[in-house]
């Protein structure tokens, strides 16, 4: 056998081995991503360009990184899931040395040595063949690519990550700033706070917003953020008059990140048919994990074991992981909204609040169930649970096109306040905020708290409905209610006349939960050797 023939045979065998590796067949298609870029162009202003960077890699420990999670926007518009990249989408067709183009993609270059350690990269040819792009270049070519961005009337881009580091991603950002003539850009914290003030802040919730900003400022090391004139103006005089003045100044600023997120939010808030398929799968897998946990739970279990049961079921279905850090809080821990330690060794005869959901092909669900570890609700637990359930049922009825988003929380607050009054837990409806401390809904999709733009529900939006009550020890009520925490959360697709609960496979009623808890999980049969 000649060397040439042997090389050809080896190549064929290697290709065959690779081709035989079974991969999921339901990823979003390159046609989907191309369609999203075309939809973005229709929303962009004349003579504009949208610029989307990859997310940075983040350190887990010393020289080990966390599993990489792509920027959802970059994935949405391209299907690309690697770091060190920038995508430019132009409103109009451009003319360059390589001919006509309306998008340029600079991606992580191939590196045979690195790929043996961290996995295969698509590179230029892979992006062309698998993702359908024409004008693709290595990331290191961006700095010298002949492109004057200052000639565009509008450049749309998101806030730059604060932790880009000193590697290729920062090099791409620096090159972009130079090409766009950007001398100074707003920090991510400022972009987030300005956006929240502009879009979601009213005189009614101003105090809560101010408290959040104060907390962020105290924790931040960013002096520019801490001393921002507009934010501090609100801090010094937090009233409706000052709010109107500050909002007026923000509207005049018209900062690019706000414009970027407006148009991207208009797209991402409405799910396409392809996205809804993945959202339904992710929500079903999440619901079935809750079902298995209801069967498996018993007082001697740990929060960690319960969390592991969720994760196992998700992976068994083929989900890549969870859409957010799992929350498994027994008793008092359930009163901590984002409790993620999950380290109590025995949940005992307590309610266990479990906010855990899968991420499937990039799409996160968001499902919460609250279950008594011994399978039976006490009278007090039953009363609080039923009240939260009633609030969720009332909000479900509003989940249809045309409903103002704010009406969902107004309805939930009303039901919960009236119920707490009847139970004698509060004496005035205004006190409901002591025990209902979050909103009832948010959008969900590629981000668990997904991007959106509008204030009114539209068909094929996907939102959560998640009323909750949290009564920590020491609350100003009868101690029999202390340490009871209940949240029920489901994922709803908005329809023309009603919503579709796509996580309904997980029981919600008291009777259905107790009935499911009476069943036995096969996972309980697994007994591991003791250390």
Automatic annotation (TrEMBL):
What this protein needs as a cofactor is:
Mn(2+)
The source's superkingdom equals Bacteria
Q: What is its EC number?
A: 3.4.11.9
| Segment forming the signal sequence | 1-19
Q: Which SUPFAM superfamilies match?
A: Creatinase/aminopeptidase, Creatinase/prolidase N-terminal domain
Write down the top EC class of this protein: hydrolase
Gene3D superfamilies linked:
Creatinase/methionine aminopeptidase superfamily, Creatinase/prolidase N-terminal domain
Aminopeptidase P N-terminal domain residues are 28-167
The GO terms describing molecular function are:
manganese ion binding; metalloaminopeptidase activity
Which BP terms in the Gene Ontology apply to this protein?
Answer: proteolysis
Q: Which reaction does it catalyse?
A: Release of any N-terminal amino acid, including proline, that is linked to proline, even from a dipeptide or tripeptide
- Protein keywords: Aminopeptidase, Hydrolase, Manganese, Metal-binding, Metalloprotease, Protease, Signal
Q: Which family does it belong to?
A: Belongs to the peptidase M24B family.
PANTHER family assigned to the protein according to its UniProt record, in alphabetical order: XAA-PRO AMINOPEPTIDASE 3
Q: What is this protein called?
A: Xaa-Pro aminopeptidase
**Protein source organism:** Lacibacter cauensis
What high-level taxonomic lineage is stated for the organism?
Bacteria, Pseudomonadati, Bacteroidota, Chitinophagia, Chitinophagales
């Amino acid at each position: 056998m000649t060397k040439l023939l042997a090389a050809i045979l080896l190549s064929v065998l290697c290709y065959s081995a690779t081709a035989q590796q079974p991969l999921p067949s339901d990823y979003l298609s390159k046609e989907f991503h191309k369609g999203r870029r075309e939809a973005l162009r229709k929303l962009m202003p004349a003579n504009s360009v949208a610029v989307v960077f990859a997310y940075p890699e983040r350190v887990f420990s010393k020289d080990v990184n966390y599993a990489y999670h792509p920027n959802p926007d970059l994935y949405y518009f391209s299907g690309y899931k690697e770091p060190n990249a920038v995508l430019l989408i132009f409103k109009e067709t451009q003319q360059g040395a390589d001919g006509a183009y309306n998008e340029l993609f600079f991606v992580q270059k191939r590196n045979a040595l690195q790929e043996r350690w961290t996995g295969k990269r698509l590179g230029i040819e892979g992006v062309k063949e698998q993702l359908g792009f024409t004008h693709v270049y290595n990331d290191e070519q961006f700095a010298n690519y002949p492109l004057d961005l200052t000639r565009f009337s509008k450049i749309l881009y998101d806030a730059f990550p604060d932790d880009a580091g000193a590697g290729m991603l920062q090099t791409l950002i620096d090159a972009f700033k130079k090409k766009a003539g950007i001398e100074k850009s707003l920090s991510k914290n400022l972009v987030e706070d300005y956006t929240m003030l502009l879009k979601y802040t009213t005189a009614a919730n101003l105090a809560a917003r101010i408290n959040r900003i104060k907390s962020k400022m105290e924790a931040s090391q960013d002096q520019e953020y801490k001393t921002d004139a507009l934010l501090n103006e609100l801090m010094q005089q937090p009233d409706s008059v000052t709010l109107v003045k500050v909002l007026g100044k923000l509207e005049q600023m018209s900062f690019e990140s706000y414009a970027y997120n407006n148009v991207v939010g208009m797209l991402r808030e409405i799910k396409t048919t392809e996205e809804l398929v993945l959202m339904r799968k992710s929500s079903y897998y999440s619901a079935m994990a809750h079902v298995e946990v209801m069967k498996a739970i018993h007082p001697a279990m740990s929060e960690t074991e319960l969390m592991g049961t969720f994760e196992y079921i998700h992976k068994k279905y083929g989900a890549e992981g969870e859409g957010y850090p799992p929350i498994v809080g027994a008793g008092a821990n359930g009163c901590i909204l984002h409790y993620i330690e999950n380290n109590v060794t025995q949940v005992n005869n307590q309610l266990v609040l479990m906010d855990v959901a899968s991420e499937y092909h990039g799409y996160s669900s968001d499902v919460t169930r609250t279950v008594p570890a011994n399978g039976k609700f006490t009278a007090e637990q039953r009363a609080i649970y039923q009240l939260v359930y009633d609030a969720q049922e009332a909000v479900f009825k509003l989940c249809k096109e045309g409903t103002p988003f704010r009406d969902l929380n107004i309805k939930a607050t009303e039901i919960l306040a009236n119920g707490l009054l009847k139970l004698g837990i509060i004496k005035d409806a205004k006190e409901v905020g002591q025990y209902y401390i979050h909103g009832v809904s948010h959008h969900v999709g590629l981000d668990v708290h997904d991007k959106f733009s509008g204030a009114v529900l539209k068909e094929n939006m996907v939102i959560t409905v998640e009323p909750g009550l949290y009564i920590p020890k020491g609350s100003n009520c009868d101690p029999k209610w202390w340490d009871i925490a209940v949240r029920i959360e489901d994922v709803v697709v908005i329809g023309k006349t009603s919503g579709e609960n796509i996580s309904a496979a997980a029981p919600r009623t008291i009777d259905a939960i107790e009935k499911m808890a009476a069943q036995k999980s096969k996972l309980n049969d697994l007994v591991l050797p003791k250390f």
